[in-house]
Write a structure and sequence with these properties.
2 helices, mainly alpha, elongated, 52 residues
């Protein structure tokens, strides 16, 4: 009857540990710069489209 998934506040109920690839993409400055401009461009399209 000892099921770890039903114990509140057990280690399994907290967030997962990021993988190596996840850590890499979060810390890669070139990727972050590209994502900044891509997301900024998407926001700009929405704002400009709303004012026409």
């Amino acid at each position: 009857m000892d099921n770890k998934n039903t114990i509140p506040y057990s280690l399994e109920s907290f967030a997962t540990v990021p993988t190596g690839w996840t850590k890499f993409w979060r810390t890669c400055i070139l990727y972050q710069i590209v994502r900044f401009f891509v997301i900024g461009f998407k926001v700009l399209r929405i704002v400009v489209g709303g004012h026409s």
